[in-house]
Design goal:
Layout (H helix, E strand, L loop, with lengths): L2 H28 L8 H36 L13 H25 L10 H29 L1 H12 L2 H20 L6 H20 L1 H7 L7 H29 L26
Length: 282
């Protein structure tokens, strides 16, 4: 193929990966009544999730994978076998435990960069969705790029379409859940809503990855003989359904956050302290 053909293929992959993410973000934002978040701020959050959190996650996970594999080989004890990235157990540990904690942590950090733009409770899940959808877009594009490089444009597009119905939605919804908790804390809810919602996001991510890896998990415990294809289809279908339930839940969070007194009705709500300026200190 010529350079022009390659460039056209890459541009097509970018468009097909980005379009669903922007449509999902538009859909989430459309649930906000009255004044809506500025597109400039949301696109900035989208870009930070895409090119900041995604690249950082890839580097950290690669380092952990390399370090864990080296450690398990240097100390081949059973308790270190889950760190071996060359083993099925090590791969599943990274997918279902390591990646959810790392990626949700990096996306959560990106959301906190927009604290000043969060003027209401509802802004939290919208900015969270923007960061998460950006992450999902770029991750999906990279996977599609790899599939195109090894299997051609049809393989790349097919993988992107499947992930657009599943992984992109998962990233958007899990980070939106954190954004809601972060906004609760910002506007005065007591306790640790950001921490608890971060753990909820990790749980969502981990469950999604486990569903998508159902066949591999079944094989690991020795019950997949003769059923791997069926379990793969079942797991993918369950993961897609879970992702759509997640984004629907985000829409409900957006609606809930706009009811008068939504935050004040929180059982642990404490009014935020108002800082006085210009007067004598007490």
């Amino acid at each position: 193929m010529s350079f022009t053909d390659d460039l056209e293929a890459i541009i097509l992959l970018v468009i097909v990966a980005a379009l669903p993410a922007f449509l999902y973000l538009t859909w989430v934002r459309s649930g906000v009544n009255g004044f809506r978040e500025r597109w400039g701020d949301l696109l900035s959050a989208f870009a930070l999730g895409a090119f900041g959190a995604t690249i950082a996650a890839a580097l950290i996970e690669a380092a952990l994978l390399t370090g864990g594999t080296s450690l398990s080989q240097a100390y081949p004890a059973p308790e270190f076998s889950f760190l071996n990235g060359n083993s099925s157990l090590g791969t599943l540990f990274l997918i279902c435990v390591g990646a959810p904690f790392i990626e949700e942590g990096l996306k959560a950090f990106a959301v906190t960069r927009y604290a000043d733009q969060m003027l209401r409770l509802v802004d939290g899940p919208v900015f969270g969705a923007s960061v998460g959808l950006g992450f999902g877009f770029f991750e999906t594009f990279l996977y599609g790029l790899g599939a195109w490089a090894t299997g051609g444009i049809v393989a790349g597009l097919a993988l992107i379409i499947v992930r657009s119905l599943s992984s992109i939605l998962l990233h958007g919804s899990s980070t939106a859940v954190f954004g809601y908790g972060y906004a609760e804390g910002k506007f005065g809810a007591s306790g640790s809503p950001a921490a608890t919602h971060y753990l909820a996001a990790v749980g969502m991510h981990s469950l999604f990855n486990a569903l998508a890896s159902l066949a591999a998990i079944a094989a690991l415990v020795g019950v997949a003989a003769g059923y791997s294809d069926a379990l793969s289809v079942l797991g993918l279908g369950a993961a897609i359904l879970f992702a759509w339930i997640g984004i629907e839940y985000v829409r409900s969070l957006v609606q809930r956050a706009q009811f008068p007194g939504a935050l004040a009705a929180h059982p642990r709500f404490r009014p935020p302290q108002v800082r006085r300026t210009g007067g004598p200190s007490s």
